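User: Sequence in, structure out. Go.
Assistant: Echoing your sequence, followed by the structure tokens.
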Amino acid sequence: MADNKIRMPQSSAGLTSFSDASTSIVLLSPQLVVVITLIIAIITIALNVL
């Protein structure tokens, strides 16, 4: 019964490595995304109140 093991591909086992080179043209830090989101939310709320 020990011979009936299921073998998973390496990509499914979490062993996939990704290159560190970024191919994105626009690079935004997570902090900038949060700030932009908060600004848009504040403007939207302010316009709805007026």
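User: And one key feature?
Assistant: The longest helix spans residues 30-49.
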